[in-house]
Design goal:
The chain is an all-alpha fold and 225 residues long. The protein is 79% helix and 0% strand. It has eleven helices and no strands. The protein is globular and about 50 Å long.
Length: 225
């Protein structure tokens, strides 16, 4: 899993650089910077849903996944966990959990992640994940300078998620069909658009409670498509 390990290190280093830059930002600059990050997040999300196949499955996945997440109340659990981490490591950043979720979706949900881990897991090249690592390095600087330490911590779920995909690809590489990869990308794009709306403070959406949609879309596409 050399590609995933390099990717994890890139997020940690880039996030640390961005976190250090954040400390020297005045409030006026921070405000406009958040607006820029919000627009950037929206644009990434829109690009991920530009090619939308299996619309009914994507909509159904978002609906079922949101109901599951609301029933489990994932957002409350993550907020509680982030508060514990902030106290444990003495992190004074009120947007810790938002930074963690935004970074996780940006770094982990997309065609480059899935295709790259499949290539590596099936014994192919790690070049795609190396390219993704470089992109994530600069994205981590941008995000951490806005959200803070939560972006650095996102390296942990990144390692677990991409590592799990690589292991699955080692044994079930043919499971990830182009339809499943595209469906994951589409649902991830919709969630990123929602995060962009949150960052811009247009409306508060409970994006964390919608995350089970990423699992539901894989199961539905595997069964029907």
């Amino acid at each position: 899993m050399i590609g995933t390990l390099v990717n994890t290190a890139a997020v940690i280093v880039g996030g640390t650089i961005g976190f250090m830059l954040k400390k020297n930002m005045p409030q006026r600059i921070t405000t406009i910077y958040f607006q820029a990050v919000g627009l950037f997040t929206l644009s990434i999300g829109i690009s991920m849903v530009a090619k939308l196949d299996h619309i009914l499955i994507v909509v159904g996945s978002l609906s079922i996944g949101s109901l599951l997440g609301e029933w489990l109340n994932l957002e409350k659990g993550v907020e509680h966990l982030s508060e514990l981490m902030k106290k444990r490591f003495k992190i004074g950043n009120e947007r810790f959990s938002e930074g963690l979720i935004t970074a996780f979706l940006m770094f982990c949900i997309g065609s480059m992640t899935v295709i790259g881990t499949i290539q590596e897991g099936t014994g192919g090249s790690s070049d795609l994940l190396f390219t993704k690592s470089l992109m994530d390095f600069f994205s981590a600087i941008l995000l951490a300078s806005a959200f803070g330490f939560g972006v650095v911590v996102s390296a942990i779920p990144l390692l677990l998620f991409q590592g799990a995909l690589t292991m699955i690809a080692m044994f079930f590489g043919t499971f990830f069909t182009p339809s499943i990869i595209l469906g994951l990308t589409n649902v991830g794009g919709v969630l990123l658009i929602g995060l962009g709306i949150n960052i811009l403070e247009i409306k508060k959406l409970r994006i964390m409670n919608m995350l089970p949609a990423l699992i539901v879309v894989v199961l539905l596409l595997w069964w029907f498509a």
